[in-house]
Amino acid sequence: MILTAFSYKDSDGWFLDNLSPLTDVNLLVGRNATGKTRTIEAIQNVTSFMQMKTFLRGNQSFSVEMEYDMYDVSHTKMKYAFKVENGKIEKEQLTVGGRLLIDRQSDLTRYEGNVINPPVDKLVVQIRRDKEEFPEIEQLMSWADGITCVSCSNINPYTILGAQVNFINPYSFSELVEALNAESKKHVLENACALGYDIADIKVFKATADLNFVQVKEHDVKKRLIDISLSSGMLRTLYILCFLERIRFTEHSTLLLIDDLGEGLDYYRATQLGKMVFDYCSNSNVQLVASSNDAFLMDVVDIAKWQILQRNGSSVTTLNQSRNYDMFRSFRMTGLSNFDLFSSDFIEQNLEIRK
Prior knowledge:
This protein is of the alpha/beta class.
């Protein structure tokens, strides 16, 4: 099952208007302050609440609508939406294949026509989990349970030491390295060397009972480096490589959210690491939604995988090849680089012509 559409509105009035159609791999691009990070965070915050990793605050208000392709034989569509008002669930609907399963309003909740009484601060999908009795709910929640988020710009010594470990970058660097088996460590070292980091070994060093560091040994260099002395580029690269190995050996991983992919890397490493991430997700059952303004990375990711965010006041809309086919086809015929679609006035001119 993959997420194909996502809309979100918060109490501040920020509105992500129908991010769709999402495919197996997606790159969010857009000028600064258009909402790339906020979009990643919105998906993460909604699903963290669904997973019951976070709970509603008394003044919290937002609404969300999501659509899915269940990837069965007939590509059944699922739609799930809910609204929170001042810390209470006001609305909730789940539709599968056109059949309305959950219909919740402020004063009445029905599951397949039968009246139920869920807690005001809990979703029906959170309290009706049974793969035999409620298989559609279990599919939805299983999808939510398999989501992980990484923020590349927040991979820093504080994250490494565990001081800022949370739902974004949920694992410290030492946890990722310690979880590597022999095969996955070999894979990390091979990929690191392919990216120009001549690393012979990587391992965890326990400084105290509660404090771990990662030691990195380079070929032809006697002294081992510890993680807090690594360059930001090497640190981010190794973290992502170890993270991919973790989800590769995790039985249940559905969606990988990566913010600022390629941040702080040179041309070769940004493009090659980006290819590794996109190729991994394309060849697995893990959907990818990544954001980046890195010109190097944008030039090697097919514009068919782009979601171009545009902001007008508090409203964010999306341009993509599926919804704006003629514009994308015209751009391909120019022979310009991918980044030129983003950096030139091509989009503005084409949108003006079509008004």
